[in-house]
Amino acid sequence: MAKLDCLIVGGGVIGLSLAYELANHGATVQLIDRGSIGREASWAGAGILPPANLATAIDPLDRLRALSHQLHREWAVRLREETGIDNGYRECGGLYLARSAGEAASLHAFAQMLRELEIEIERLSPVEVAELEPALREVATGQLKAAYSLPREAQLRNPDHLRALHLACERRGVQIRADREATGFECSNGRMTAVRTDAGLLHADRYCITSGAWSQRLLKQLGIATGIMPIRGQMVMFKCETPPFRRILNEGPRYLVPRDDGRVLVGSTEEEAGFDKSTTDQGVGELVALARQLVPALRDASIENSWAGLRPGTFDGFPYIGRMPGLDNAYAAAGHHRSGLHMSPGTAVVLRQLILGDEPEIDLSLFRVGRG
Q1: Is residue 326 scored above 80 in pLDDT?
Q2: Three-state DSSP class for residue 127
Q3: CA 369: distance to chain centroid?
Q4: What are the distances in angstroms from CA 134 to CA 128, 291, 296?
């Protein structure tokens, strides 16, 4: 076997994106996951890609979002060419809606922030909302307090994106091992020397933990405290004959995402429920009620499925990206909460730059592993 440059622990969208990026730059990579590849939070989300502007972003988190948003378009094309898989990237646009005075005030502030970043956003009247999306006519004429259009908002289909990344990694020689759990680490003289797994020791020159909500447990074994915690997000999927609307609908933290095949994803709750991925009658019921209030056509649509994922939240809202304290050759990337899929390509690029000895194009000090 060729000398292994990097071992990645965690096979979600962050780990797969990093493996893909490292392999594209000539590194030999192995990736392991405690379960199936890409079946945790990365798979469970709705694939919303909010617009961003790299030219105006100054804050490191905004720059990470903007770099990622730019890369998603490029990666979608490249992955389709390499694998034949269409990951569902579509610039479908988004509508942001408010039905109360408080929500409207928050939405106006959000719109002003986007304008300062020179991100295209347009305020709409209720009549204009109904013209753009006739399915919203009932809500638009009777309940809307504010509405905005973001024409550059995009989406992709999480399972298809993960399949494309998985196949592209394998074609670039990445060794991918599912059902291989990291159980501990061996370190000496300020370096990690091995990862202990249920199948024995694994060695590499460099190591990276990208295990989502489970990263906290692994980092704790290394004496590294983080604020990563599992945040349960429940989802519901409707099945329609044809898409009842075209744009992503956002109201506060909740959303409805239309797929080309007529399915509509509705999400998401935010609950501190530990590592419990079960759905609840209350959570599912709230999402179903929201969907049918906003889009009356869904009152007659069947509910095809519901599920939950564990987003890796953090105490301060920032992910952990960078070198582990006290270890020259070990890194981590976790804690992206609801933005893991959106920020995955940018995270992969800056971490690849750091791992391979280049200067990251985004200041990573805000994302320091082991902070506070």
Answers
A1: yes
A2: helix
A3: 19
A4: 10, 15, 11
Give the integer Cα–Cα distance in Å for 277 and 230.
10
Report the candidate in 179, 158, 176 with the shortest Cα–Cα distance to residue 168: 176
Instruction: Report how far residue 353's alpha carbon sits from residue 102's, in angstroms, rounded to the nearest whole number.
Output: 43
Which one, of 305, 356, 321, lies nearest residue 28 by Cα?
356
The answer to whether 335 and 318 have CB atoms below 8 angstroms apart is yes
Which strands make up the sheet holding 200-202, listed edge to edge? 182-188, 191-197, 200-202
What amino acid occupies position 59? D
Structure tokens at 131: 């013209």
Q: Quick one: the chain helix, strand, coil %, rounded to 5?
A: 35, 25, 35
Please state, in angstroms and as integers, the Cα–Cα distance from residue 298 to each residue in 251, 252, 259, 294, 344, following that order.
17, 20, 14, 9, 32
Q: Which residues contact 259 (CB under 8 A, 6 or more apart)?
A: 88, 157, 243, 265
The Cα–Cα gap between 240 and 266 comes to 13
Question: In order of start, what are the domains of the chain with their CATH numbers?
Answer: 6-86+158-226+316-367 (3.50.50.60), 94-152+229-313 (3.30.9.10)
Please, are residues 26 and 356 in contact by the beta-carbon 8 Å criterion?
Answer: no
Do strands 200-202 and 254-258 pair parallel, antiparallel, or not at all (unpaired)? unpaired
Per-residue pLDDT of 242-287, as tens digits, reads 999 999 999 999 999 999 999 999 999 999 999 999 999 999 999 9
Q: How far apart are CA 367 and CA 84, in angstroms?
A: 35
Amino acid, res. 362: I
Stretch 174-201: mean pLDDT = 96
**Is 237 strand, coil or helix?**
strand
Determine the distance from the C-alpha atom of residue 286 to the mean position of all C-alpha atoms in its chain, rounded to a whole number. Answer: 23
Q: What b/e sequence results for 121-144 when a residue is b if at least 16 CB atoms lie within 10 Å of its CB, and e otherwise? A: beebebeebbebbebbeebbeeeb
pLDDT at 70 over 80: yes
CA distance 195 to 187: 9
The whole-number pLDDT of residue 1 equals: 43
Q: What pTM value is reported for the model?
A: 0.96
